[in-house]
Amino acid sequence: MPVWVGDANPKKAVTAQGVQGFANAIRKTLRYQQDNLRDGIMLAWAFRPDALAAAERRRRLEQVRIDSSHFREQLAAFFTDHADCENCLAFVQPPRAEVGHKRVAPRTTVFDVSETVVLNSGAKIINVQWDFDYAERFSRASGLSFVRGAKCEPQLQAQYEFPRSGKVRVACKVQDDMGGEGLWSGESGWTEGRLPRSAAAVCALDRKPTFTAVIKQDSGWWIGWMEEVSGVNAQERTKEALLALLREILREVLEFNRAEARKAAENNYVEEFVTVRNDGRSSSTCSNRDAC
């Protein structure tokens, strides 16, 4: 069976163009011409929504994520059938660090990594480190590593007072108990007496929008969909792995839709955040030009 392998960079998702190219390549094979072979497997770190839709239209192209439990089980079964190396095979993915921030004083900010997605199935965060003057090399801030709460859980928030106003680059390392380590970095403008210029982004982070997942267990697998966004569905062996994968796919779909909307608007547009209330009415809460 033909197998297509995606880019080695985990951040580069397969597009519809890649699916079309693979389908065209299958048509040129001798087996396709003799037996009308249409099956194929696409193996990659991630698939964009348009790639998922393109494969669905062809129906016989299977898309498999490298970090999925399905791929791990298949690969483990292959190796253990041919050699005794089950205990030597491991997949370790870095957590996808997501950092929210809220200023509580002119130069004091609270940073929050609770929205971080742990990609290793069954893993949990064990340590968070911060660098509040990040350059090319990470230099952790003193006193903010292996900080524990009342129940010995890792602290996912850090409050820091910057020594001066102005642009500052902050970095965060998140580590899980399977050896995964993710890095986030971002630059913000901190000015006395006013919010950062990226006020709308801060508003969005503070609100932490919530979506609804419909999940069920079926024949040993956990499967699920998102109610509010079509095209977001996944299947995993455990509930925790399913929810983590749904979060990741949802984030990719939202980023894709956001990019497509901005592309369609071209220029001279304004972004408005809209909240739907319980009575069904909507209200504008914050724009990319106004403070909250």
Short description:
The protein has three domains: 3-66; 100-197, Immunoglobulin-like; 213-287, no CATH class. It has six helices and 14 strands. It has helices at 16-27, 30-35, 49-58, 69-82, 199-207, 239-265; strands at 3-5, 40-44, 61-65, 100-105, 108-112, 125-131, 157-161, 166-176, 181-190, 213-218, 221-226, 233-236, 272-276, 282-287.
Word description of this protein:
The model is unreliable at 190-207 and 282-292 (pLDDT under 50). A hairpin with a 2-residue loop joins strand 10 (213-218) and strand 11 (221-226). Helix 1 runs parallel beside helix 3 (49-58). The protein has a three-stranded parallel sheet, with helices on one face. A three-stranded antiparallel sheet has the order 4-5-7. The chain has a three-stranded antiparallel sheet with strand order 6-8-9, with no helix packed on it. The chain starts with a strand and ends in a 5-residue tail after the last strand. It is globular and about 70 Å long. The chain has six helices and 14 strands. Helices cover 27% and strands 29% of the residues. It has three domains: 3-66; 100-197, Immunoglobulin-like; 213-287, no CATH class. The chain is an alpha+beta fold and 292 residues long.
